[in-house]
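hey m, so remember when u said the tokens were messed up on ur end? i reran from scratch. heres the input so u can diff it against urs
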Amino acid sequence: MKLTELVRFLRERLVMEPFDDLDISLNGLQVGPAEQEVRRVAVAVDACMASFEAAAALDADLLLVHHGLFWGRPLAIAGAHYERIKFLLDHGISLFAVHLPLDAHPQVGNNAVMARLLGLSHVRPFAKWKGLDVGCSGELPEPENAEALAKKLGFSVAGGLKILPFGPKDIRRVAIVSGGAADDVYEAMDEGMDAFITGECEHQVYHDCEERGITMICGGHYDSEVFGVQAVGTMLQEELGLAVSFVAIPTSL
């Protein structure tokens, strides 16, 4: 299908417009000619040379990422930025980025997928970013400990897993915000959650978690954000018949 048609499909299905003026990521098509024909798609967490090279090896026409190349400030087309863009152009690979909309999406978002993997019920929005919901919370069908929840999500010490085990051993009420959202643990405390799941762990929340009695499961920024791009890839396969491959470039952070 034409790249313009695919971009329109993605923007509509991922409900990207509400975030256009709020997210510092340049969400949407970042590199690519409008009339390019797209047959094969690669999906990855990060826009980096390693993911570009992997997409080229797969003969992908488009690489869809969660973290793109542009973050709210102009960048000179020089140095590593030049080399990245030149590689994409030389290999005919378009780049599409979707940041906060892919955290927030209620079906294919990072947080929604984690909630499904954990079997959460009574799922509801949790944590706002500039007025828009990005996370979710809910209840486990049966009490579980933090290690079991981390295992269900594929989190590991090698991938950056850290657990602050200060809540009840038997966890029922869980809030989730992927990536770098450690400060949202305070909202989880205020709502009486047993555990908060995110990507990165921050030093400044340690003592508050201990004193207020909440468990914080930090799976690593990267490992907490593989879910969304993989879910979008499955959607593109099932609904549009595109060939899709996931490119794993873990950072252990």
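this time it looks ok to me. The chain is about 30% helix and 25% strand. if urs says something different then somethings off w ur setup not the seq
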